[in-house]
């Protein structure tokens, strides 16, 4: 049974050359989850798939870096390759979404949340949450600033 777009469970991904940020999105609610190391790409994909299975995710939303003119960057090709690999191994749909300036916005968000400077060095999961927030907004799904209750993430 297909869920309609508004009720889909999504895993947002902010892909970087060192770390991958993961966030969970359900019906307009967004929760940054964790940061996965890219040192071993196969291990990273396995961890992402495990997280998606535990969350009962319907699909992945991967941030795609576009420049100010909306054109793909040099890193876009690498991210598309990663997305194709993730789709094949997870057997779940993958959608790419413009992540322009999401990492800078994540840093600002971490400062406004009062995170200590030491913890601000890895805001990839917050950037993944921002990607999902923008995705929901573009799809016309009401986005709620409140995070999901932590009880939803016991197994994640």
Q: What does this molecule look like?
A:
By secondary structure, the chain is α/β, with parallel strands linked by helices. It has one domain (5-153): Nucleotidyltransferase, domain 5, CATH 3.30.420. The chain has helices at 41-55, 74-90, 102-112, 124-138, and strands at 9-15, 19-26, 29-37, 59-64, 94-98. The protein has a five-stranded mixed sheet, sandwiched between helices. Helix 3 (102-112) crosses helix 4. Residues 146-156 have low confidence and may be disordered.
Main beta sheet strand tally, sense and closure: 5 strands, mixed
Our count of domains comes out at: 1
Q: What is the strand tally? A: 5
The spatial strand order of the largest sheet comes to 3-2-1-4-5
CATH class identity: Alpha Beta
Any idea what the radius of gyration is? 15 Å
> What structural class do helix, strand and pairing data support?
alpha/beta
User: Alpha-carbon distance between the termini?
Assistant: 24 Å
Uncertain residue segments: 146-156
Strand content: 15-25%
Relevant CATH superfamily? YqgF/RNase H-like domain
Total number of helices: 4
Share of residues in helices: 25-40%
């Amino acid at each position: 049974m297909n869920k309609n777009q508004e009720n889909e469970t999504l895993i947002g991904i902010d892909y970087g050359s060192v770390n991958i940020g993961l966030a969970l999105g359900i019906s307009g609610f967004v929760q940054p989850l964790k940061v996965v190391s890219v040192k071993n790409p196969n291990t990273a994909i396995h961890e992402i798939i495990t997280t998606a299975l535990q969350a009962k995710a319907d699909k992945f939303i991967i941030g795609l870096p576009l420049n100010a003119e909306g054109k793909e960057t040099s890193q876009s090709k690498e991210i598309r390759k990663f997305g194709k690999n993730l789709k094949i191994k997870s057997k779940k749909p993958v959608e790419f979404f413009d992540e322009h300036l999401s990492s800078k916005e994540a840093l600002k968000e971490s400062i406004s949340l009062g995170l200590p400077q030491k913890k601000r060095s890895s805001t990839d999961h917050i950037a993944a949450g921002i990607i999902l927030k923008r995705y929901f907004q573009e799809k016309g799904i009401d986005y709620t600033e409140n995070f999901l209750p932590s009880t939803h993430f016991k197994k994640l």
